[in-house]
Write a structure and sequence with these properties.
With about 240 residues, this protein is an alpha/beta fold. Helices cover about 35% and strands about 15% of the residues. The strands form 2 sheets. The chain has a 4-stranded parallel beta sheet. A 4-stranded parallel beta sheet has the order 4-5-6-7, covered by helices on one side. The protein is globular. The N and C termini lie close together (about 10 Å). Pfam families: TIM.
Length: about 240
């Protein structure tokens, strides 16, 4: 399974390094079989002596190698640190920073051309959720416009917008229904994200179509994140 942490706008270079080293040590000591991903802010990126199953990724990038784009980060800056995995389409970029589906697709194509692993995020806001499952799925499928779903390094993270950072978690029935419908058309691994924490990760990972989690706030404590990895190691599906 894939256990991913999104640091968002948190951690400095020093604190991120200490966190990543602690997770590396835990994985090495426990011989965990989980695929672990840590998405650090740009200023904390570095070359880490990573264990084989852990990759440090980028939360964002501008779809250029380099150029005159003040304030943006191109792939040249990511390649300096050997970054091989990126987040695209997170709801905070779609809804807070107003990134369009067209821009998400441009980023996707750019990362795909460089054979990066892509965790592509989709999710619906509360006003869509209350309209029922058909409205939810219609909204989610629109977020695949311009996206090559056959790409072999694609991972999809379903994160209902109303459950991110709110303390609300979709019911297991809701998660299973959405992931099962996605699985009907998609071959990529499916993650769930949205107020995942130590207390509920085990039940979420037991959902049949769930291949892992993308965790925000609850993963920022290294002991909690290690516990999530340990729990995943003990989930049998």
């Amino acid at each position: 399974m894939i256990i991913a942490s999104n640091f968002k706008t948190n951690y400095t270079r020093g604190s991120a390094k200490a966190f990543i080293q602690a997770i590396q040590a835990f994985i090495a000591n426990t011989k965990s079989e989980q695929q672990v991903r840590i998405f650090a802010p740009f200023t904390a990126l570095d070359r880490f002596d990573e264990v084989e199953t852990l990759k440090v990724g980028a939360q964002n990038f501008y779809p250029v190698q380099n150029g005159s784009f003040t304030g943006e980060i191109g792939f040249e800056q990511l390649e300096e640190f050997g970054i091989q995995t990126v987040l695209i389409g997170h709801s905070e970029r779609r809804h807070i920073l107003k990134e369009s589906q067209s821009l998400s697709a441009q980023k996707y194509d750019f990362a795909k051309a460089r054979e990066s692993e892509i965790i592509y995020c989709i999710g619906e806001p509360a006003e869509i959720r209350v309209q029922g499952i058909d409205a939810v799925m219609s909204y989610l499928w629109e977020q695949f416009e311009g996206i090559d779903i056959s790409y072999d390094k694609l991972i999809i993270a379903y994160e209902p917008v109303w459950a991110i950072g709110t303390g609300l978690t979709a019911s297991l029935e809701d998660i299973e229904e959405v992931l099962t419908r996605l699985r009907d058309k998609l071959c990529a691994p499916l993650l769930y994200g949205g107020s995942v924490k130590v207390e509920n990760i085990e039940t979420i990972l037991h959902v049949n179509a769930c291949d892992g989690v993308l965790v925000g706030t609850a993963s920022w404590n290294e002991n909690a994140f290690c516990e999530m990895i340990r729990i995943a190691d003990n989930v049998k599906k």
